Every structure is written in structure tokens, then in C-alpha cells.
């Protein structure tokens, strides 16, 4: 079955479920009193990094509120904004760009979901990284296009965040997937680990996705083959950032052994989002718990190392929940 159809079916199921019990779940899932917190956060797939991030946030809240019951449920970057916006669960993790796409009704969502509110940055930056095998005869997007290189490109499943970014970057350079195919290349929708397996077998030339820097998958792949990374030019960074609600970013040369200089790209933070009807005081306390547990979070996963009071409020274009906004203003973190 076409993967775009699969994503559409998944989003449809979530929406239909939400229509039946959305408001009830916001009320039940975010039960708040002066003495306890009882709520649910939807994160990533079981065993993945995002499930670790979500559990770290949940434990931060438990550490600050004795007796708090914080349930962590599996989810996905694209699905979570819809799950939260329709009231299936009160809180979730997603990219800032994906949350804003849901809020504003942009791809892959079919309508605006304006009940989403941002709470806090969780992981400050996920950098778009376009990795190619070192043997390819080009060192930039411009050279690749000029040569009309028959690139064998692997992207994430259609409609996933990484695939949307890749497609928009190519469009900003003036090409499409169809152009790549017309040059004798191919476009395959694959997971990250499968991509690098095929690249090691010389069946894939390039892959792009928004991930941490350094990425464990890329580090592991670099031990099996020689790689290089293509940077984005200034005009493309500006266009893609504006269209998708992303930030400019720089991957430090020290991130990977195969980099000789810094790489310009786009990035998006992972953020905690909430339904707008979650009580203000509860969200205030959730935000405060993250703020008070930076040191603990750094022991959970190295991706938390860059989370600080300087960036936790930089949630992108989704409106802040009043509880989070009040906390940040009281701390002098917002004007």
C-alpha cells in the first residue's frame, strides 16, 4: 500500500477516535489538584530515542511533585500534534515545524488544528543532514543539479517530517523527485537504518533527514563507508525556513570525523505541546519542573545537554500555553 495512504489512514483513525472521546480524555488525562498531577504524555516509538526523551520529561515532573502519576504512551512525530489537538491525550512531543504545520493546516495535515499550544523546548535542535557516499562526483547540490546526476535517493516515508523537508529543499533548488528519476536516478522511501544498509551495499547514494548532530546512525554508517555531507546555500535555507517554520542551523565540524568544516543547514527543535484546555496552573508546574531538572535531564540522554534557560522558550511559531508563558515571563525569559 502507498505510504502516503497509510499516513492518511493513521491520521484519519486518530481523528475519528478523538471525535468520540477527545474532550473527555483532556479532562481525565490532565486531572489536576493542588496536591497532585495525573496526566499523560505521548512520545515516540517504544525503545526509540523519543521514548527516552518523553520519559525524562515525565520523571522530571515526578521528581518535583511527589505522588504525581505521569503516563508515557508511544506515538510519532506526525501523529502526536493531531493526538493532542483533538484531545486524545493532553501532552505530546513533536518537532516545532510539525506542530506548526498541524496548527496552521499545512502538509501533511488536511485542516488547521488550532487547539495546540507549546509548552517548552525539549531538544533544542534537530539538524537536516544530507549524507552522500564519498564516491559520488559532486560536492554540492548545485553540482549535482548541473551534472543531472542519476542519484539514488532514500527519504523517510512520504509525509514524514524528514521527507517533507527533503522535498522542499529540492524544490527550493528548482528540482523535483521526477527530475531525479528523469536523470536515471531513483527515490525510495526507507527508514534510517535501512538507508545506510543499502548505502553500504552501493544501492543508495544519498539520504536526507532531520536528526540530532551527531546522529548515532550516521556515526555507525561512517565506520562502514566513507561519507560526506552537502550543505545548503543561504537562499535555500531562507526559503525552507520561512515555508516550513524552521530555523537556520550549523552542524559543527566536530560532530563527525568525516567533516572538515562546519555545514550550513536548517533545524527544528523538539518541543512539548499541550491542548489549550489543560489548566494554566498545571502547565506552569510542568514547565517549572523541566526548568528545575536540567542537570537530571543531562543524565538521561546527551541530547538534553544543550537544553537551557536560554532556549527552552524558543518553541517556534505555535502559540505558548498561558501557563508556560506565565512561567517564562516570571523568570524574565520573555519580554
TrEMBL record:
It holds the Pfam family NMT1_3. InterPro entries: TRAP_TAXI. Keywords: Receptor. The keyword ATP-binding does not apply. NCBIfam families: TRAP_TAXI. This is TRAP transporter TAXI family solute receptor. It comes from Oceanobacillus polygoni.
Amino acid at each position: 500500500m502507498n505510504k502516503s495512504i497509510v499516513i492518511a489512514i493513521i491520521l484519519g483513525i486518530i481523528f475519528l477516535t478523538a471525535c468520540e472521546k477527545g474532550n473527555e480524555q483532556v479532562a481525565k488525562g490532565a486531572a489536576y489538584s493542588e496536591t497532585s498531577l495525573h496526566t499523560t504524555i505521548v512520545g515516540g516509538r517504544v525503545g526509540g530515542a523519543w521514548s527516552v526523551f518523553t520519559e525524562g520529561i515525565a520523571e522530571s515532573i515526578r521528581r518535583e511533585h511527589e505522588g504525581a502519576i505521569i503516563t508515557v504512551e508511544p506515538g510519532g512525530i506526525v501523529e502526536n500534534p493531531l493526538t493532542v489537538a483533538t484531545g486524545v491525550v493532553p501532552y505530546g512531543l513533536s518537532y516545532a515545524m510539525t506542530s506548526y504545520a498541524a496548527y496552521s493546516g499545512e502538509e501533511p495535515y488536511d485542516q488547521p488544528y488550532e487547539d495546540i499550544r507549546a509548552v517548552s523546548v525539549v531538544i533544542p535542535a534537530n539538524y537536516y543532514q544530507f549524507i552522500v557516499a564519498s564516491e559520488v562526483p559532486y560536492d554540492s547540490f548545485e553540482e549535482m543539479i548541473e551534472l543531472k546526476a542519476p542519484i539514488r535517493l532514500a527519504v523517510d516515508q512520504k509525509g514524514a517530517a524528514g521527507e517533507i523537508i527533503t522535498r522542499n529543499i529540492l524544490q527550493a533548488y528548482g528540482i523535483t523527485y521526477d527530475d531525479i528519476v528523469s536523470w536515471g536516478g531513483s527515490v525510495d522511501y526507507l527508514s534510517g537504518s535501512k538507508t545506510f544498509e543499502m548505502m553500504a551495499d552501493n544501492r543508495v547514494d544519498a539520504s536526507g533527514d532531520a536528526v540530532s548532530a551527531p546522529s548515532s546512525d550516521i556515526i555507525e554508517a561512517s565506520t562502514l563507508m566513507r561519507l560526506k555531507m552537502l550543505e545548503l546555500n543561504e537562499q535555500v535555507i531562507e526559503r525552507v525556513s520561512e515555508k516550513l517554520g524552521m530555523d537556520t542551523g550549523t552542524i559543527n565540524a566536530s560532530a563527525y570525523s568525516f567533516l572538515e568544516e562546519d555545514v550550513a543547514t536548517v533545524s527544528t527543535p523538539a518541543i512539548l505541546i499541550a491542548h489549550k484546555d489543560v489548566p494554566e496552573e498545571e502547565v506552569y508546574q510542568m514547565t517549572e519542573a523541566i526548568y528545575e531538572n536540567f542537570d537530571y535531564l543531562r543524565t538521561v540522554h546527551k541530547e538534553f545537554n544543550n537544553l537551557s534557560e536560554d532556549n527552552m522558550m524558543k518553541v517556534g511559531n505555535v502559540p505558548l500555553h498561558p501557563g508556560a508563558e506565565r512561567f517564562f515571563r516570571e523568570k524574565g525569559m520573555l519580554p
